[in-house]
Write a structure and sequence with these properties.
single chain, alpha+beta, three-stranded antiparallel beta sheet, 9 strands, 38% strand
Amino acid sequence: MLSLNLPAFDAKIIVKDGKKAIFDIIRRRYVALTPEEWVRQYFVHFLLTYKGYPQALMANEVQLQLNGTRKRCDTVLYRRDLSAQMIVEYKAPDVVITQAVFNQITRYNMVLKVDYLVVSNGIQHYCCRMDYERNTYTFLQDIPDYRLL
């Protein structure tokens, strides 16, 4: 798989039915190793190891209802009261992060109303903090440490 703009981690990869699978530490099972999943696993390990995010408050592939259809958020970080605090959307490394990607995560946020939206293709990472009082958002220079949220 492609090298990413994230710290390396000890990826557990197996071959299952002739296809590669990677261990998802959050879901606690092996999942198909797609380019997007490669980014997810790198990013989740980055959040856990370097940013101090608690594994117990993170979930992958979170289902939600939006305009009568089922959608899935790639990763959601929850507060201790189990309300959603951050949505992370991943794209494969060869996918350019465009306004359409931000539109996608913004639609998810219509349901969850989180404080932070994060988008990453493993090469570029964007994080913005929502300000619901002013109905605006601010792009941050870096993904914040968990203790600063």
